[in-house]
Design a protein that fits this description.
Distance between the termini of chain B: 69 Å
Number of strands of chain B: 0
CATH superfamily of chain A: Cytochrome c oxidase, subunit III, four-helix bundle
Largest sheet of chain A: none
Chains: A mainly alpha (200), B mainly alpha (113), C mainly alpha (576)
CATH class of chain A: Mainly Alpha
CATH topology of chain A: Four Helix Bundle (Hemerythrin (Met), subunit A)
Largest sheet of chain B: none
Helix content of chain B: over 70%
Largest interface: A-B, 54 and 47 residues
Number of domains of chain B: 2
Shape of chain A: elongated
Oligomer: heterotrimer
Distance between the termini of chain A: 63 Å
Helix content of chain A: over 70%
Number of strands of chain A: 0
Order of helices and strands of chain A: HHHHHHH
CATH architecture of chain A: Up-down Bundle
Radius of gyration of chain B: 21 Å
Number of helices of chain A: 7
Structural class of chain B: mainly alpha
Radius of gyration of chain A: 19 Å
Strand content of chain A: under 5%
Chain lengths: 200, 113, 576
């Protein structure tokens, strides 16, 4: 027999397996980014001086990236509603848009933020402001890359499952969407904390 | 899978939330340029707006507002433990013995001087 | 569903998604790591008893003169701790026992995510290979203790970076595995298997998985920060003005070593409960089965386990009492540490009381399970002075600490895991182990475990520090306590010899052991009552069982009415 409740939810919990699984994974990610944030706050509070975010970081670029991620959250939701309506064409369009926006986020970050900074000699070892900036945004970027790989899989080879088990495939897109939204939420907190707070 | 009328309403809701998020993003940047004087007020305002945005994404996009009890239980436990990590660590570092000159770090590195 | 009957060898035994194969893979790999960690300790113990002398047989591997140099001693020490905890005990307790037994005990055909399960094993394997590879790197292994404290670990010119990379793999493997166990227990319980009918072993694995899931990420964050410090020259853990070798270190500064300690111990304290909970679960199963009566206080044990799991997250800085902590926080952590001893005592007491009035069968698993009880008792009780801040001032970083935690893990957890191997061997292989060899293994191990670790309490109280290359030879205050070192080295060698009986027994019984029925122990839980020995590949059961009764229906009125002393969980009794 197959592992039960991969598609139909179990009656007493009301969940299918991968929904519980992804929320547990996200709980662990909350602890990860929570530990990073706590460390950042501790290091910052204890430091004799700290740059004001807007003096050193590019706020318009950061704002643009914030909006890009929020839009990509909407497009991945639309890809999920499309596949539930059996509209394969719209699904591919919206999932493709999500991937494009995620890649755009990374491109803007690397090309307009990381590279110019490194050119000016601002590397992580310069001081703890840059150390935390590169480490925390870098780890977030790695999570975006992970999400892009998953989404690309569901746009490409993973789509085969839709022909055989459409409902299970829809659940997978919901699960992938939950992960993507979480990465968006992390950025929603990261952006004001790192880019916008005044200095001391 | 699901009927199209419900889904159209769902999509409408997503669009409305998206607009709210856009407005809140503008507010986020806007309040950063207001001189509030004290650091903790700036932090508090930034966190309030970020929490509102995060709640909208979690509640509507991630469907947390209509999730099952067991998910609430596990997430609740996570949040409690995260608060434990944060507040207790903070409390420990600020409760360190030693001279507080320019901030906590001086006291913890008192073995150097 | 793919055709399981005609799978090629590599899909059936190497890259299998069957939780039983994966459990066995975890089991064999972790036992090999345990053996390797043991041999590191043998060399260290010999060296402590004979400081400065060339080590026999393998001296040539260690250094030119054949002796264990102080640097190499430090590297062995750091690796012994790391390998035993992260590559040995936890993968055996959770990866092997958890993966193999939990799905069958809840009546499921497999874990909730079989492919993720396979991935978690291979990520663990790769992490283990990376950790071992550090022995062959020019920089050598990490040598700043398994605790990797900054600033030493951030600036040492040895293999700490490989340790950090390996930990990223091991933590990932652990996260995948723990999510899998939680979903399996929540979602895949067989019809009729309510939460309070679960075997206590499943409860302990469930709670352990939460500890792993939520406590590891802060260590992952810390490992990333320390990696940045080592490789990119950042100062997350390096304060300003740190003197190294007479010069101020050329880093930006502004960090604090305390941050590493807080993040590390936030994991490492729940980690020790990860080490003990599965062991308590195994012992509970074996005690109930071999006393032919239900567990006493099952409900209290479950609630205590849950409370223990939660409390384990708020006691961590009792490892940090000597870092200059203020009295408020010291009082806080002291209080939570004292409180956490309560659920532990409730569980241990319940296990003891479960024996009262029982019809005890002294087979090999039962001997190890019984041996566990007083050993864990000693380990737990010796922890109490350490949890009190004022007593800890004298005992911190001494051999007393080493004695305490080894009692809980070595004659504690490892005895329980060995008991579990003897207990479930007939289920996994369909054959029984040799009882005489098992008894010899038990008595020898019990005597020499105490021989190694009991004198450590005397040494610690005398003030002998831990991590000393020469075991205290050069310290005046230690002279009254170091005479035990010879006996402890001898005990460690004898302990090793007695493990050979175990290894021989397992290998011999695998091929030539007496064939076993599906329920040789007359046990009640689903893996015995409803599945063959070994369980069916990929399916476990011919059909998913229904559960009608609690997990420990031994000598109940229903059973005795039928003339037997147990009823399996999946058996329906028609009331006349």
């Amino acid at each position: 027999m197959e592992v039960p409740y991969t598609v139909k939810p179990r009656l007493d919990t009301g969940l299918y397996n991968s929904k519980l699984g992804i929320w547990l994974f996200l709980a662990s990610e909350v602890m990860l980014f929570g530990a990073l944030f706590s460390s950042y706050i501790l290091l910052r509070a204890a430091a004799p001086s700290w740059y004001a975010g807007p003096d050193v970081l590019n706020v318009p670029i950061g704002t643009l990236n914030t909006l890009i991620l929020i839009i990509s959250s909407v497009t991945i939701l639309l890809s999920w509603t499309s596949i539930r309506l059996n509209d394969l064409k719209k699904y591919k369009l919206y999932m493709g848009a999500t991937i494009f926006l995620g890649a755009l986020f990374l491109f803007i970050k690397v090309y307009f933020e990381y590279l110019p900074k490194i050119d000016h000699g601002h590397i992580p070892s310069e001081n703890n402001f840059y150390a935390t900036y590169y480490t925390i945004t870098g780890l977030h970027a790695i999570h975006i890359i992970g999400g892009l790989i998953v989404n690309l899989y569901f746009l490409g080879p993973g789509l085969k499952m839709y022909n055989k088990e459409p409902e299970r495939f829809c659940n997978r897109i919901e699960t992938a969407g939950l992960y993507w939204h979480f990465v968006d939420i992390v950025w929603i907190f990261l952006f004001p904390t790192i880019y916008l707070l005044p200095g001391s | 899978m699901s009927n199209s009328k419900n889904i159209k309403e769902e999509i409408n809701q997503y669009i409305k939330i998206f607009i709210a998020l856009g407005v809140l993003t503008v507010i986020t940047v806007g309040i950063a340029y207001i001189e509030v004087g004290k650091m903790w007020i700036a932090v508090l305002l930034a966190m309030i707006v970020a929490t509102m945005k995060g709640t909208l994404v979690a509640g509507f996009f991630m469907h947390l507002f209509h999730e099952k009890k067991i998910i609430y239980l596990f997430l609740g436990i996570t949040l409690v433990l995260l608060c434990a990590l944060f507040f207790i660590t903070f409390g420990s570092v600020y409760n360190q013995v030693g001279e507080i000159e320019q901030g906590v770090i001086e006291s913890t590195s008192s073995y150097i001087h | 569903m793919s055709d399981h009957h005609n799978e090629p060898f590599w899909r059936k035994y190497i890259f299998s998604v069957d939780h039983k194969i994966i459990g066995i893979q975890y089991g064999i790999t972790s036992l090999l790591f345990l053996l390797f960690g043991f041999t590191l300790m043998l060399v260290m113990r010999w060296n402590i008893a004979n400081p400065g002398q060339a080590v026999p047989f393998i001296g040539g591997l260690l250094s030119e003169e054949g002796m264990l140099t102080p640097d190499r001693y430090n590297s062995f020490g750091a690796m012994h701790g790391t390998i035993m905890v992260f590559l040995g005990v936890v993968p055996l307790a959770v990866g092997a026992f958890g993966n193999y037994v939990v799905p069958i005990q809840v009546g499921a055909p497999d874990m909730a995510f079989p492919k993720l399960n396979m991935a978690s094993y291979w990520v663990y394997f790769v992490g283990g290979v990376i950790m071992l590879s550090s022995f062959f790197m020019p920089q050598g292994t990490a040598s700043s203790g398994w605790t990797m404290y900054a600033p030493l670990a951030s600036i040492a010119n040895t293999g700490e970076t490989i340790w950090l990379i390996s930990m990223l793999f091991l933590i990932t493997s652990s996260l995948l595995g723990s999510a899998n166990i939680i979903v399996t227990v929540v979602q895949l319980r067989a019809p009729g298997l309510t939460w309070m009918r679960l075997p206590f072993f499943v409860w302990t694995q469930f709670i352990t998985s939460f500890l792993l899931l939520l406590a590891f990420p802060p260590l992952q964050a810390a490992a990333i920060f320390q990696f940045m410090d080592r490789v990119f020259g950042t100062s997350f853990f390096l304060p300003s003005g740190l003197y190294v070798g007479g010069e101020v270190l050329n880093v930006a500064g502004g960090g604090t070593p305390l941050l590493w300690q807080h993040l590390f111990w936030f994991l490492a304290h729940p980690e020790v409960y990860v080490l003990i909970l599965p062991a308590l679960g195994i012992v509970a199963e074996i005690l109930a089965n071999n006393s032919r009566k239900p567990l006493w206080g099952y409900r209290s044990m479950v609630y205590s386990g849950i409370f223990l799991g939660f409390m384990s997250f708020v006691v961590w800085a009792h490892h940090m009492f000597l870092t200059g902590m203020g009295t408020t926080m010291a009082a806080f952590f002291q209080t939570t540490t004292m409180i956490i001893s309560i659920p532990s005592v409730i569980i241990l007491s319940s296990l003891f009381i479960s024996l009262w009035g029982g019809s005890i069968r002294f087979n090999t698993p039962m001997l190890f399970a019984l041996g566990f009880l007083p050993m864990f008792g000693i380990g737990g009780l010796t922890g109490l002075p350490l949890g009190l801040a004022s007593a800890d001032i004298h005992l911190h970083d001494t051999y007393y600490v080493i004695g305490h935690f080894h009692y809980v893990v070595a004659p504690g957890t490892i005895f329980a895991l060995i008991a579990g191997i003897y207990y479930w061997f007939p289920k996994v292989t369909g054959r029984k182990t040799n009882e005489l060899l098992g008894k010899i293994h038990f008595y020898g191990s019990l005597v020499f475990m105490n021989g190694i670790f009991f004198p450590m309490f005397f040494q610690g109280l005398a003030g002998v520090s831990r991590r000393l290359y020469d075991g205290g030879e050069t310290y005046l205050h230690a002279q009254g306590a170091i005479q035990y070192n010879d006996f402890m080295a001898f005990s460690s060698q004898m302990l090793f010899l007695f493990q050979l009986f175990f290894i021989y027994n397992l290998i011999y019984s695998l091929f030539k052991g007496e064939k076993s029925s599906s329920n040789p122990w007359d046990a009640t839980t689903l893996e015995w009552g409803a599945a063959p020995s070994p369980p069916l590949p990929h399916l476990n059961f011919k059909e998913i069982p229904n559960v009608y009764r609690s997990a420990y229906d031994y000598s109940s009125p229903d059973a005795l009415n039928k003339g037997v002393d147990f009823i399996p969980q999946n058996k329906k009794i028609e009331k006349a």
